[in-house]
Amino acid sequence: MKITKINKTDSKVTIYFDKEKLEFYPATYASYHLYINKIIEESELSKMKEDNKIEEYFLYATKRLILTSYSPSKIEEFLLKKGANKTQIKKVIEKLRKYDFINESKMVEEIISFCDSKHYGFYRIIKMLNDKKISKEEIAKVEYNSIREKKECELQVKLLQNKYKNKNEFNRKKSIYSALLRYGFDESISLELVNKFSNSNHFHEINVLKLDYQKCFSKFSRKYTGYELSQKITVSLLSKGYRINDINYVKELQK
Questions:
Q1: pLDDT for the residue numbered 246
Q2: Cβ pair 102, 70 in contact under 8 A
Q3: Residue 38 near residue 70 (C-beta atoms within 8 A)
Q4: What percent of the chain has pLDDT over 70?
Q5: Burial of 115 (0-12, 13-18, 19+ CB in 10 A)
Q6: Is 133 buried (19+), middle (13-18) or exposed (0-12) by CB count in 10 A?
Q7: Burial (Cβ within 10 Å: 0-12, 13-18, ≥19) of residue 233
Q8: What is the pLDDT of residues 11-65, one digit of tens each?
Q9: Is 119 left (phi over 0), alpha (psi -120 to 50) or beta?
């Protein structure tokens, strides 16, 4: 096939042949020594078309990566949906690495920095790395630091104490413990620090109990009276984690 005309713009290069015209990305065009009247063999033209397809996928990937960082595995997912085959994907990822569009080590650093700012635990970090489809090799480099974990966990306990300050001691501890597990802290250190820092004074516990007592009374007094009402309130408050002695004390105050 002989080239009869070449038309260039910033975004594409149109090459005219005897009976057809083909469009290529500037980067693809620049990879070949093309000029008017040059004869191109079918094999060379097929290679140009394949290189152009790879350039299309490369440009698509760079647009995604400009918005946010992605791991090679995630980029592979995107490209498969676009119709790329395994060989094309491999070449695109190699090119992305070459021009530093993909850098898993940098992604790991960014995720760890984000988790540090949120005071998350080690297992939350690992979960986020897996969610971002970071390679197992990179994840394995992230080490557990017991000093860091205890420090961050202590801070979270103090923050969560304020969040759940209107709960009684039992439910506050339960809520804080559950939150710590969600934030990625180890079960043992979470339990240890919850018991160490989240105990409330008895005065506070009685005040919260008084509020819950009034709620129970309003709820059950519509249907029950006397001994049956008293039992319903007691059972409900026990289920909320209050001590029987405190419940009886508050009952006496309400008489």
A1: 81
A2: yes
A3: no
A4: 97
A5: buried
A6: middle
A7: buried
A8: 999 999 988 899 999 999 999 999 999 999 999 999 999 999 999 999 999 999 9
A9: left
Torsion of CA 125, 131, 135, 139, to 10 degrees: 10
pLDDT digits (tens, 9 = 90+) for 177-189: 999 999 999 999 9
Q: Provide the phi-psi class of 68: left if phi over 0, else alpha when psi is between -120 and 50, else beta.
A: beta
Q: How far apart are CA 247 and CA 238, in angstroms?
A: 8
Q: Are 7 and 13 in contact (CB under 8 A)?
A: yes
Report residue 80 as tokens: 């498969």
For the chain, where are the alpha helices, taking DSSP H only? 26-30, 42-67, 72-82, 86-98, 104-118, 122-131, 136-139, 146-163, 169-182, 187-197, 202-220, 226-239, 244-254
Taking the C-alpha atoms of residue 209 and residue 245, their distance in angstroms, rounded to an integer, is: 12
Residue 149: predicted pLDDT? 95
pLDDT at 245: 85
Q: Is the pLDDT of residue 203 over 80?
A: no
Q: Is 28 helix (H, G, I), strand (E, B) or coil?
A: helix
